[in-house]
Specification:
It is a single chain. The chain is about 0% helix and about 70% strand. It is built from no helices and 8 strands. The chain has strands at about 5, 10-30, 40, 40-50, 50-60, 70-85, 90, 95-100. The strands form 2 sheets. Strands 1-8-2-6-4-5 form a 6-stranded antiparallel sheet, with no helix packed on it. Strands 3-7 form a two-stranded antiparallel ribbon.
């Protein structure tokens, strides 16, 4: 599904119970297929283990794409209990994120 943030920054928080090992984090940018008017540009992903941020990953979807492709970030953390995706900037009128996946 797509989470939309209209003209504002926002975040998505995922709680993982029980905690898991995260080797790789994959992100798929979103877009509004009817109007092509929104997508995430800059972001920070925070991975929590033991109640605090164990790793922060800064990234950017530099261009707006009508057919977004997956972006992968190596992680290699044990006992990840929460993932927080923070929107720092967006393309066009707002942000849209299609999927977050971990392995």
């Amino acid at each position: 599904y797509t989470t939309l943030f209209r003209s504002t920054l926002g975040h998505v928080t995922i709680t993982i119970e029980p905690p898991v090992r995260v080797e790789t984090l994959r992100l798929l940018n979103g877009h509004n297929r009817w109007y092509n008017d929104r997508a995430v540009r800059g972001y920070r992903v925070e991975l929590y283990a033991g109640g605090s941020v164990a790793r922060a990953i800064d990234g950017e979807f530099a261009t707006f794409e009508e057919q977004p492709t997956w972006v992968e970030h190596p992680v290699g953390l044990e006992r990840v209990e929460q993932i927080r995706f923070n929107v720092r900037s967006h393309h066009r009128i707002g942000a849209a994120l299609a999927e977050i996946e971990w392995r």
